[in-house]
């Protein structure tokens, strides 16, 4: 099968995945999820080659995946990482591995693959000579922290040394794992991710029976012993709680299980602690839990069980080390509790706190489910894997990255960036500031790279205050890519890059070239305006230098094309941005307008002076028509204070609420000086017309009499006349929708991909 992108056929990359064991450990279950996700793609073909027979073989085959077994000598296959660290055992293993490596290399040649991908430490090391003999590029997928607190020191030194030279690319399962591989070749992070069936459609209901559980292979590194000791400290305070240890020993850890059982008896917990063994259905086990505990005494590479518990809506307590904070932190609300590793007292305190306030526990469980649903899916990781494989095999298209000024709001430019990311799956997104709570949640599914400025919370929450620092932050945000698409309204076109740069210009910086319109008044009459005037000369010099780094320009409208020519002396091709509204999705009433079911006029806009929202509100004063304003910005409080009774203002709406608003609107009102008129397209997708200012980008997106009409000046009187004049108008909703189709995301992606292809040739 061939996939098609930008009009060109791209053959799938063929991959052989190697794993030394067929037991169902965490890595192997992750491999099953990975194979399921890759089976849905047409740009990759994957086969699994195992060095032993076992349950994993049947699990993969029953799901329709290609798998074969190339048996390794049993003594070599069962050598533990600690045994292998001994000199005698290591030498014996090397000698014993030679015949197997030869057989493996021969089989890889026969499989006719493009890339060899290894998933365990033993497979990593055996894969190095085998891939070299077969003449194939090698990709390591490292799922263990390569650190002395996790592995024997000789093995750490070996893995780190080999990672710098032998594999073509190294993939780590977390930033914590990547940090233990300094200098590894082509190091990339790809989180394991959650399969769709692992993520509950809603948080699980609170169980009737109180169970605190821990899931994982029984091992000293998994924390079952610490869990039992913490249970002993709180058992009397919570006599109705049952403690469950779900898992079984592997890789020679049977004695540790006996140590755990002895500890249970010594603490008098024989009737309170259950050890049911391995479970093939961890989601069902998690759904029964009141509280899920992750107690690893050493930093975990990732902490998959924490993500799986969050995906079910189960409150979690986890150790604050390794990759776990990457899973738990970053959402809008607290998710569970983090405790120091090996600290049994802190673990017991957290368990007691969670069990003593079940309402708070459930709230944190719901927050965890929301984070899992929006940020921990498997899709982005599979994009990364496929991209790395294609690069290693030499089949890849140019490495494309996306740059944007700042992701701190929900606006048309941010929706355009999401469409760019859909056109180039796996592209990293680079920005000066990123506030996940303030912009679209879909960005959480992408690899976002930020400047050091992002560490300053007040600037992240108010990007306008960062203006004096943004030239320095932008000039140092270096992007390693073959081609960068810079989505810019003032800063992203200045990000340095190792490759070529295609600038998609929403407008040359308004604060430099349209200061009075940007501020809504003479700049000399406000402190902000005076500050802008003081900074204008150095900022303008920086902007002109940045503009010269662009290899080609795209403009989002004809008016912006003229402004680019005036500001930079550069000609630009016009590529209108796409509208990005899913009209078929769920609807949710906007609370501020839920009783206006018989219709209202609508404004969707940032609340900035140049948007003229205050003028629209003034126009509706005294009219029988009602107006719903959706937006946020510095004028929010002022507009709420001045709004008459027939005007209501709503902020930070979900997509479902936006769909409801457009569906129930009579018409959209757009009075700003826009570089591109995006909101009329969004309204038009719902068959709704627009009353717009006859200027700027609206001239590109509104066909008068088809999907809207114009007023000639941004005054209350002109807007009021337009509202009154259209009271009796009827609009052909199908004609409105047909006009919008010319601005579809598919058309946008096709033309953007073509521009990238042309520039990269």
TrEMBL record:
<dbReference type="Pfam" id="PF13439">
    <property type="entry name" value="Glyco_transf_4"/>
</dbReference>
<feature type="domain" description="Glycosyl transferase family 1">
    <location>
        <begin position="597"/>
        <end position="724"/>
    </location>
</feature>
<feature type="domain" description="Glycosyltransferase subfamily 4-like N-terminal">
    <location>
        <begin position="56"/>
        <end position="186"/>
    </location>
</feature>
<feature type="domain" description="Glycosyl transferase family 1">
    <location>
        <begin position="204"/>
        <end position="368"/>
    </location>
</feature>
<dbReference type="GO" id="GO:1901137">
    <property type="term" value="P:carbohydrate derivative biosynthetic process"/>
</dbReference>
<dbReference type="Pfam" id="PF00534">
    <property type="entry name" value="Glycos_transf_1"/>
</dbReference>
<feature type="domain" description="Glycosyltransferase subfamily 4-like N-terminal">
    <location>
        <begin position="411"/>
        <end position="578"/>
    </location>
</feature>
<keyword id="KW-0808">Transferase</keyword>
<dbReference type="GO" id="GO:0016757">
    <property type="term" value="F:glycosyltransferase activity"/>
</dbReference>
<protein>
    <recommendedName>
        <fullName>D-inositol 3-phosphate glycosyltransferase</fullName>
    </recommendedName>
</protein>
<dbReference type="InterPro" id="IPR001296">
    <property type="entry name" value="Glyco_trans_1"/>
</dbReference>
<dbReference type="InterPro" id="IPR028098">
    <property type="entry name" value="Glyco_trans_4-like_N"/>
</dbReference>
<dbReference type="InterPro" id="IPR050194">
    <property type="entry name" value="Glycosyltransferase_grp1"/>
</dbReference>
<keyword id="KW-0328">Glycosyltransferase</keyword>
């Amino acid at each position: 099968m061939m996939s098609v992108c930008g009009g060109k056929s791209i053959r799938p990359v063929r991959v052989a995945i190697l794993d030394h064991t067929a037991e169902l450990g965490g890595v192997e279950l992750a491999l099953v999820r990975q194979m399921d996700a890759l089976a849905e793609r047409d740009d990759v073909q994957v086969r699994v080659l195992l060095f032993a027979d076992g349950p994993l073989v049947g699990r993969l085959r029953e799901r329709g995946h290609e798998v074969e077994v190339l048996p390794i000598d049993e003594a070599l296959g069962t050598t533990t990482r600690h045994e292998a660290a001994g000199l005698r055992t290591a030498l014996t293993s090397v000698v014993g591995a030679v015949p197997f490596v030869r057989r493996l290399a021969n089989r890889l040649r026969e499989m006719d693959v493009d890339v060899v991908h290894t998933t365990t430490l033993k497979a990593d090391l055996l894969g190095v000579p085998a891939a070299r003999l077969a003449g194939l590029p090698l990709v390591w997928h490292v799922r263990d922290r390569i650190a002395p607190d996790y592995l024997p020191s000789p093995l750490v030194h070996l893995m780190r040394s080999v990672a710098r030279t032998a594999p073509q690319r190294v993939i780590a399962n977390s930033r914590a794992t990547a940090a233990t591989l300094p200098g590894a070749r082509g190091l990339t992070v790809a989180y394991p991710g959650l399969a769709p069936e692992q993520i509950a459609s809603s948080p699980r209901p609170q169980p009737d029976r109180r169970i605190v559980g821990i899931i994982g292979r029984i091992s000293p590194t998994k924390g079952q012993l610490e869990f039992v000791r913490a249970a002993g400290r709180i058992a009397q305070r919570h006599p109705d709680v049952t403690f469950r240890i779900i898992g079984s020993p592997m890789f020679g850890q049977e004695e540790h299980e006996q140590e755990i059982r002895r500890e249970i008896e010594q603490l008098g917990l024989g009737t309170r602690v259950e050890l049911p063994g391995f479970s093939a259905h961890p989601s069902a086990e998690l759904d029964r839990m009141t509280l899920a505990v992750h107690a690893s005494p050493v930093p975990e590479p990732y902490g998959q069980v924490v993500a799986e518990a969050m995906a079910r809506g189960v409150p979690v307590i986890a150790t604050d080390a390794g990759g776990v904070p990457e899973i738990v932190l970053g959402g809008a609300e607290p998710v569970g509790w983090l405790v120091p590793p090996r600290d049994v007292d802190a673990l017991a305190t957290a368990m007691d706190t969670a069990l003593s306030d079940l309402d708070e526990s459930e709230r944190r469980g719901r927050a965890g489910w929301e984070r899992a649903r929006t940020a921990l899916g498997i899709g982005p990781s599979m994009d990364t894997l496929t991209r790395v494989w294609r690069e290693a095999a030499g089949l890849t298209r140019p490495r494309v990255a996306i740059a944007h000024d700042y992701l701190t709001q929900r606006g048309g430019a941010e929706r355009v960036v999401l469409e760019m990311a859909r056109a180039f799956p796996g592209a990293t997104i680079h920005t000066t500031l990123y506030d996940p709570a303030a912009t679209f949640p879909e960005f959480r599914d992408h690899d976002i790279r930020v400047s050091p400025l992002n560490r300053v919370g007040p600037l992240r929450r108010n990007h306008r205050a960062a203006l004096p620092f943004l030239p320095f932050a932008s000039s140092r945000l270096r992007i390693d890519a073959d081609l960068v698409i810079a989505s810019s309204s003032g800063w992203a076109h200045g990000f340095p890059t190792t490759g070529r740069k295609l600038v998609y210009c929403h407008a040359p910086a308004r604060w430099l070239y349209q200061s009075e319109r940007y501020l809504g008044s003479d700049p000399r009459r406000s402190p902000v305006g005076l500050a802008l005037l003081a900074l204008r000369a150095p900022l303008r010099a920086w902007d002109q230098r940045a503009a010269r780094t662009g290899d080609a320009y795209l403009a989002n409208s004809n008016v912006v094309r003229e402004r680019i020519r005036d500001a930079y002396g550069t000609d630009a091709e016009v590529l209108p941005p796409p509208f990005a509204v899913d009209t078929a999705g769920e609807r949710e009433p906007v609370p501020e307008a839920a009783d206006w079911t018989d219709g209202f006029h609508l404004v969707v806009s940032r609340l900035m002076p140049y948007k003229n929202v205050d003028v629209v509100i003034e126009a509706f004063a005294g009219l029988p028509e009602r107006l719903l304003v959706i937006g946020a910005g510095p004028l929010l409080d002022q507009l709420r204070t001045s709004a008459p009774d027939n005007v209501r203002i709503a902020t930070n709406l979900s997509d479902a609420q936006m769909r409801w608003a457009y569906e129930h609107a009579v018409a959209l009102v757009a009075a700003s000086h826009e570089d591109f008129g995006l909101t009329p397209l969004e309204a038009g997708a719902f068959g709704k017309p627009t009353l717009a200012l006859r200027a700027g980008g609206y001239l590109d997106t509104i066909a008068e009499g088809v999907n809207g009409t114009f007023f000639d000046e941004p005054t209350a009187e002109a807007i009021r006349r337009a509202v009154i004049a259209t009271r009796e108008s009827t609009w052909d909703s199908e004609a409105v929708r047909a006009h919008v189709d010319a601005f579809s995301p598919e058309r946008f992606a096709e033309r953007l991909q073509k521009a990238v292809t042309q520039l990269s040739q």
